[in-house]
Amino acid sequence: MSKIRQIEVFYVSIPMPALFYPAWIPGYPQKDSSFAVIRVLTEDGIEGFSTAPVFGKEHKVVTQLIGPSLMGEDATNIPAILQRIREVAYLGFRNYWIEPAFWDIKGKKEGKPLCELLGGRPVKVKLCAQSVDMKNSTERIKELESLYENGFRSVKIKVHHLDEKQDVEQIVGTAKAMQGKMNLHVDANQGWRMDMFSKAPLWDLDRAKRFSDVCANAGLLSLEEPLPMDEYDDLCELTKYSRIPIAGGEMHSSGFPEIKMMIERKCYSVFTPDVITSGGVLQVWKMIELIKKHNLRYSAHSFLNGISFAANLQVIAASGFAETEELAYPFAPPAWTTDVNDRILEEPFNIVNGYVDTPALPGLGIRVNKKVLRKHGTRIGIMNANRRVVFSLQNYGIKSSLIMDKAIKERRESFQ
Ligand SMILES: [Mg+2]
């Protein structure tokens, strides 16, 4: 047992060397890579980390929402941690992103990397370089040639034009130039469609079918998120219709129950859950087991920073899919570079010819760089035993606090 002593949440913002416009948020000029980091400390001196995408400092509420009920719990009892997360998820606060931090602790306690905790071993994993912005075919070919020079042989490019013809122009032109040199995938980012700045395209089944035909004729290997993530009926029909695999599943914050239904209905032929944004390690592992049972494919998504990349890398390494599938790797210089992606780590991942070795260090296999966390991060929330007492007294008063403490103590003793 490793009892939880303290949790802290940081808001981190790493400046990027150049501005870029994410394809999935038209009109948004991004200048920093911003994310939340959770640090969980145990009474026996182990620390675990995880991370989440952010709009701003919204994750400051995590320490108050879940923190009090986590104090004193066993950090290595993942099902119990999930139950705590689920209790506030009913209210709309889905914080499964914190769950990998507890696997980090469990691995460090047992001296094993996460992939070994899941029954696998550290293996070499092929990466699919993931572009982040919009380009025409001339610009895209130039980008891909540079990726090719850097050793990548698989790439996922973005389409997100209002005008369908511009998407077709990019795909056909790029495929013609790069066919035979690289595996080409395309991502339409319709799953998490954002229309808050410039107008974003909204695909329907007809457009998705037409575009899947274009991709199939051009020799692309998969089409990702061509429809909104909850258009289940249309996704089923498209997956049946398409001559190339339809992929998706990176951002389903309700986790296993939804993806289970989507697997059983065959909404996609390639499922791409991300352990940060699709329910945490345990739920993604259950998805992978079901994906195997239904003879479908799992290919890991990752897009945020070195911590999220590490967690997804450990899971695909253990999954048995690493020999045939790839892990997405955001790489789009001059804005999104390896340095930006991995700045939060003490040692950046060593990408050689488009492959990466799964680290054998315990837990998620990485060391978070505390200097970077201090320099680029602000602690926006903290909870520990003392703060929990103050929190409880302020919110519930002495009498109720004592009754609740007694109930928690009895519950823990009854399960020991
Ligand atoms: Mg995607």
What does this protein structure show overall?
The protein has 416 residues and is of the alpha/beta class. It has two domains: 4-111 and 368-414, Enolase-like, N-terminal domain (Enolase-like, domain 1); 116-357, TIM Barrel, CATH 3.20.20.120. Helix content is 40%, strand content 19%. The protein has 15 helices and 13 strands. It has helices at 62-65, 67-70, 78-89, 99-110, 114-117, 137-149, 164-178, 205-218, 232-241, 256-264, 281-293, 306-319, 338-342, 370-376, 385-414; strands at residues 4-20, 30-42, 47-53, 124-130, 154-158, 183-187, 222-224, 246-248, 270-271, 297-298, 327-330, 355-357, 377-384. Strands 4, 5, 6, 7, 8, 9, 10, 11 and 12 form a nine-stranded mixed sheet that branches. The protein has a four-stranded antiparallel sheet with strand order 3-2-1-13. α8 (205-218) links the parallel β6 and β7 (222-224). α10 runs parallel beside α11 (281-293). The mean pLDDT is 96. Magnesium ion (MG) is lined by residues 187, 189, 224-225, 250.
List the helices and strands and how they pair.
Blueprint: E1 4-20, E2 30-42, E3 47-53, H1 62-65, H2 67-70, H3 78-89, H4 99-110, H5 114-117, E4 124-130, H6 137-149, E5 154-158, H7 164-178, E6 183-187, H8 205-218, E7 222-224, H9 232-241, E8 246-248, H10 256-264, E9 270-271, H11 281-293, E10 297-298, H12 306-319, E11 327-330, H13 338-342, E12 355-357, H14 370-376, E13 377-384, H15 385-414
Parallel strand pairs: 4-5, 4-11, 5-6, 6-7, 7-8, 8-9, 9-10
Antiparallel strand pairs: 1-2, 1-13, 2-3, 4-12
Helix pairs in contact: 6-7, 7-8, 10-11
Bound molecules: magnesium ion (MG).
